[in-house]
Amino acid sequence: MSPLQTARGVFTLCLAPILTFIVSLLALIDMLWVRRSEWQAQQFPRWWGRTICRLAGVQVRVEGLEYIDPKQTYIFAGNHASQFDIFTFQGYFPYDFRWLAKKELFRLPVFGWAMHRVGYIPVDRSNSRDAMKSLDAAAARIAKGKSVLIFPEGTRSPDGHLKAFKAGAVLLAIKAGVAIVPMGFNGSFQVLPKGRWLPAAGEIVLRIGPPIVTTGCRPKDKQKLAGELHEAVAALLDEAHKPLPDDAGPEPAQPQQA
């Protein structure tokens, strides 16, 4: 990384928390005292995502928007290779959606309050029973018209290659009765891999595939559907992000959550 890009990366790293606080505060004020519209308040996190990408020298291109009907509700599911997947989708995906986030984040001052007010959906991961209850609650909110983004791998890939999927995203789609949209984040690992602090300049290409319909599916079909989703996401990835032979397919079913 050149000295100029290093300086740029340091500047982005230092400014990102400040921007996050400012955007959270503005969204909170907007929701409490100004327009009081969840949809309109999304302009603040959208600006946040775009600004962080621009500060880091990251260009973003989105392909496949023709597959999306803005009037429909979806669960968007993609690979997770970098923190910049979040900035990319938040800043450059043009349609309304919400995040699923662990419930602990909603307790944070300002940031957590803003997440609650703009309609983000908490998920409890403390134990299997509470996780299933929060999954049912999330499914009910999605069924009422809130599209969400999920990373079925559960965490960032350590090497940039697509890993096995957990079946939770698919089960959520089945419960909510909505289609799943596969997505591929390409180039984000090169911008900021897991374990590195400073982002590098580059291009991220977000590819969107045709929705996978869940109509008629039952919870017992979740492993099969997770496999189909994994294949669909893999097809949207460049070679540097495609799964390695040992990483293909969904994770084995968890009996206690069946």
Structural class comes to alpha/beta
Number of individual domains: 1
Radius of gyration equals 18 Å
Mean pLDDT: 90
Helix content: 40-55%
What is the N-to-C order of secondary-structure elements (H for helix, E for strand)? HHHEEHEHEHEHEHEH
Individual helix count: 9
**Distance between the amino and carboxyl termini:** 47 Å
- Overall 3D geometry? globular
In the CATH hierarchy, the third-tier topology is known as Glycerol-3-phosphate (1)-acyltransferase
Tally of DSSP β-strands:
7
Largest sheet: 7 strands, mixed
What is the CATH C-level name? Alpha Beta
Strand content: 5-15%
Uncertain runs with pLDDT below 50, 5 residues or more? Answer: 253-258
Give the name of the CATH architecture: 3-Layer(aba) Sandwich
Spatial strand arrangement across the major sheet = 1-7-6-2-5-3-4
Domain Phospholipid/glycerol acyltransferase: 74-188
GO molecular function, one term: 1-acylglycerol-3-phosphate O-acyltransferase activity
Family: Belongs to the 1-acyl-sn-glycerol-3-phosphate acyltransferase family.
EC number: 2.3.1.51
Topology of helices and strands:
Layout: H1 3-33, H2 38-41, H3 43-56, E1 58-63, E2 74-78, H4 84-92, E3 98-102, H5 111-117, E4 121-123, H6 128-143, E5 148-150, H7 168-176, E6 179-186, H8 188-191, E7 202-208, H9 222-234
Parallel strand pairs: 1-7, 2-5, 2-6, 3-4, 3-5
Antiparallel strand pairs: 6-7
Helix pairs in contact: 1-3, 1-5, 3-4, 6-7, 7-9
